[in-house]
Structure formats: structure tokens, C-alpha cells
Design a protein that fits this description.
The complex is a heterodimer of chains A (173) and B (260). Chain A is an all-alpha fold. Chain A has helices spanning 2-23, 26-42, 53-71, 95-110, 113-124, 129-136, 140-159. Classes of the chains: A mainly alpha (173), B alpha+beta (260).
Chain lengths: 173, 260
């Protein structure tokens, strides 16, 4: 049990990073983290040894978040950027870098949440497509198409102009 | 170089970025990208997005996790749950140390770092490694140790009994500090690993009655401030063990206050 708790503890910083990136509002992210940990502790005995605890925790977090959204308690998309209480990105980073980080945050929040969660689990948290699919309860193919749409949208908004995809690429619907 | 792929799908381009392709296909796509600069630019953009996400959100990793003290006063039947929740007071400390107040620090400049955390760590390193005189007064003279420490610190203070945590008191000492004196009690487990409890008077800082965790060069520490006294439990033991000790010390100090 103690080893399980140690493992759980190790996952906390990354759970919080994901919650912060997903919700943008620090207090909401913190609430989601604490709810997730409380739920995980209740169910720690149900966690199957040998499976990835981080993916298990992300699954709990995702389900709690979906339930909260359904109840209307958390509305990430209505949070204004000014309410962001995240720590400043990096002390001493240059102004243009600060601006770039602000842009990525704005772009991220403009994505539909289903695309944002896929992008964050894959690109920020480094989960495989299969793990991401399991966490979100969707098919691997859905992970890939959401990832494509999310990345393209973000890329276009960061580049500040619409760039048509290369004609050499086979389009996939 | 491998033969370039005849065609690469959009999904494969993402899979390439995310390391989801097998080695053979990866090198084919790599070769294909060399011939298709537009697609290569998209790949570079996707990677840049990833870099920026990390730059923006990685500082969150260094924020300390705090646990409300109520959790430690929970009824005994919830003891296991409480112990596990207590274990959550951990943070991955590697970044936390140098980020100081920048990230997640409700206390602004975190004065407790200089006044409590650093002297406690320093005293631990200096005296636990001293084979001849690790303590000034040994546990065999516990009564006089408690009396001496209490007199000099102007409060009733006794070395808590941590036998339930598998720790035996070795003894203690007084140390100079910027505000009167500080006390250090030293303990040892069955394997001979030492652990110290550092106590000093300190101004109350808002929001610091919760346990806080720090890690510095393999030294783990839980600390808290309560009623103008600062406490730090320091050792090389895993955080999950140290938090149990911190919890026991916290309860013992409360019991003592109530009995006064």
C-alpha cells in the first residue's frame, strides 16, 4: 500500500500540469486535482498492479472533469484569459518568448476541449495514442483525427495565416 | 538513407512527430520529408507547439502540494486514508528549490526558506554525520535535555516519542538562530538511518500551517509553522515515511499544548 502511495505521489506534479493546461484557471485546476486525488485514494486498492498508474489517474481526472462540465460547475471555455492565475511562465525569459507563450495559451484555449485534451495528453504528457484513447474512452482513430484538427488549428493561429496543407499529402477524412 | 515513401498520410505525419511509427516506416517518412519541404515545415511547427507547451506549463511541475491540517486530526478509523493523504504533501522537488517564490509560493519571498528550511537542513548535515558527538545531551538524560531546551527556548518542549514510527531518540542539542535559540532532536531507526527534528521560534506566515515539502540533494524535509513555532522533519528516508513522522510530531506537539 505504501508503494502504491509513493507512486501516486510521484504522479501529482504531472496531473497538476495537465489540469492547469486543460482548465487554464488555477483554482479550477487545483480543485480538479484534489478531487482526482481523493477519488484515487478511495479506489487505490482497485488499481491493477503492473498497469500504468499515470494513465489510470488521468482517466479518473478526465471522468471527473466530464461530470463536472455536464453539471455546469466548470466551464473552462468561459474563463477569460485575465483570470488566469498561473504562475508566470519563466522568470527572466525574454519578452518575445513571453509573447510566444502567451500565444500558445490563447491558441490552446481557443480549441474545442475534445481537441485540447488529446493534444495535451499526447504532446505535453507524452502518452501514446493507445493510452490517450483509453484515458478518454475513445477510439485510437478518433485520437488521431482530433490530434490532427487540434494541431492544425493551433499551427494556423500561431503562424497568423491560413496555410493550405501540402498537395503531396493524401487527405484523410 | 532509406527509400522515401511513395505517399505519407496526414495521420502518419503526426505519428512520425509522436514517435508512433516503427523504425522502418520512420526512416521512410524521414526520407520523404527531405523531398517535401512544406510537410517538413508542418512537422517543425508541430514540434514547436510541443516545445512551447512544455515551456509554458512545465513550471507547474515545481509547485508544492499542500494538505489541509484538518486531515491530520481526522478520526482514527480514517487513519489509513489520512496517512495516504498525508503522503500527498509531496512535490517533485528538483525544480522547487531554485524557483523559490516564483512558482506557487503563496508566501511571496518565502522567508521560511532562510529561517527554517535551510538551517534545519544544515544542522542535519552537520550533526548526523558526526560519529563522536552527534548530540549534546544523550537520550539517557532525556529529562535534563527537555528541561534545558525548554528553559532556553522559553516554552515547554520535549522530544516527542516516535517509537511507533520505528525511531529511537538519540538525544538533542541547542543551536543558535537569528531569533533566540533553535533545538534539534535526533532519532535513529533500526537500520541506523538518522532523522532530525528542528524547532525554532518564527513569525507566523499566512498559509503556512499546512505541511510543506522540500527536497534538496537527496535530503527530504517536511516543515510547518504553528503558533509562532517552526518545525522541520529532515532525513534521507523516502517522503512517504517522513510524512508519517511529521504527522506524529504534529500530533505530539498539539497534545502537549492542550495539556499545558
Amino acid at each position: 500500500m505504501r508503494r502504491h502511495a509513493d507512486q501516486l505521489v510521484e504522479c501529482i506534479p504531472r496531473l497538476r500540469r495537465y489540469a492547469c493546461a486543460l482548465l487554464h484557471d488555477r483554482q479550477q485546476a487545483e480543485d480538479l486535482l484534489q478531487d482526482t486525488l481523493a477519488r484515487a485514494l478511495e479506489r487505490l486498492s482497485l488499481w491493477r498492479r503492473g498497469t500504468d498508474m499515470r494513465a489510470w489517474l488521468f482517466t479518473i481526472m478526465h471522468n471527473l472533469h466530464v461530470n463536472e462540465c455536464r453539471r455546469g460547475a466548470r466551464r473552462p471555455d468561459t474563463v477569460s484569459l485575465h483570470q488566469s492565475a498561473l504562475a508566470e511562465p519563466c522568470a527572466g525569459s525574454r519578452a518575445d518568448q513571453q509573447a510566444a507563450l502567451h500565444d500558445i495559451e490563447t491558441g490552446l484555449m481557443s480549441l474545442p476541449e475534445e481537441q485540447r485534451s488529446v493534444l495535451l495528453l499526447v504532446s505535453l504528457e507524452g502518452l501514446s495514442y493507445r493510452q490517450t484513447a483509453k484515458v478518454l474512452g475513445i477510439k485510437t482513430g478518433t485520437v488521431m483525427s482530433r490530434l490532427h484538427r487540434g494541431r492544425e488549428r493551433l499551427r494556423v493561429s500561431l503562424n497568423g495565416e491560413a496555410q493550405p496543407p501540402s498537395p503531396h499529402l493524401r487527405r484523410i477524412k | 538513407m532509406k527509400r522515401p515513401a511513395d505517399t505519407v498520410s496526414e495521420h502518419e505525419l503526426h505519428a512520425f512527430v509522436d514517435g508512433e511509427l516503427d523504425a522502418q516506416r520512420r526512416s521512410e517518412v524521414q526520407a520523404w520529408l527531405a523531398l517535401h519541404p512544406e510537410a517538413a515545415a508542418r512537422v517543425a511547427d508541430y514540434r514547436r507547439i510541443e516545445d512551447r507547451l512544455h515551456l509554458r506549463f512545465d513550471p507547474v511541475l515545481a509547485q508544492p502540494v499542500t494538505v489541509p491540517p484538518e486531515l491530520y486530526r481526522a478520526p482514527a478509523r480514517r487513519a489509513l486514508r489520512v496517512a495516504l493523504l498525508a503522503a500527498l504533501a509531496l512535490v517533485s522537488g528538483a525544480l522547487g528549490w531554485h524557483l523559490k517564490g516564483r512558482v506557487g509560493g503563496e508566501g511571496g519571498g518565502l522567508p521560511e526558506l532562510a529561517e527554517l528550511v535551510q538551517p534545519a537542513a544544515f544542522a542535519h548535515l552537520v550533526y548526523t554525520t558526526d560519529t563522536r558527538y552527534p548530540v549534546e545531551i544523550p537520550a539517557s538524560e532525556q529529562a535534563s535535555l527537555n528541561r534545558w531546551v525548554s528553559q532556553r527556548m522559553h516554552t515547554d518542549l520535549r522530544a516527542p516519542d516516535l517509537a511507533a514510527q520505528g525511531l529511537r531518540l538519540i538525544g538533542g542539542r541547542l543551536l543558535p538562530s537569528t531569533n533566540r535559540m533553535a533545538a534539534q532532536f535526533m532519532y535513529e531507526n533500526a537500520q541506523g538511518d538518522r532523522l532530525t527534528l528542528y524547532i525554532r521560534r518564527i513569525a507566523d506566515y499566512a498559509g503556512l500551517s499546512n505541511f510543506r515539502y522540500r527536497e534538496q540533494k537527496g535530503l527530504h524535509m517536511f516543515y510547518w509553522i504553528e503558533q509562532a513555532m517552526g518545525y522541520a522533519v529532515v532525513g534521507e528516508q523516502p517522503p512517504a515515511q517522513l510524512i508519517g513522522v511529521a504527522n506524529a510530531v504534529h500530533l505530539a506537539m498539539q497534545a502537549e499544548k492542550h495539556s499545558q
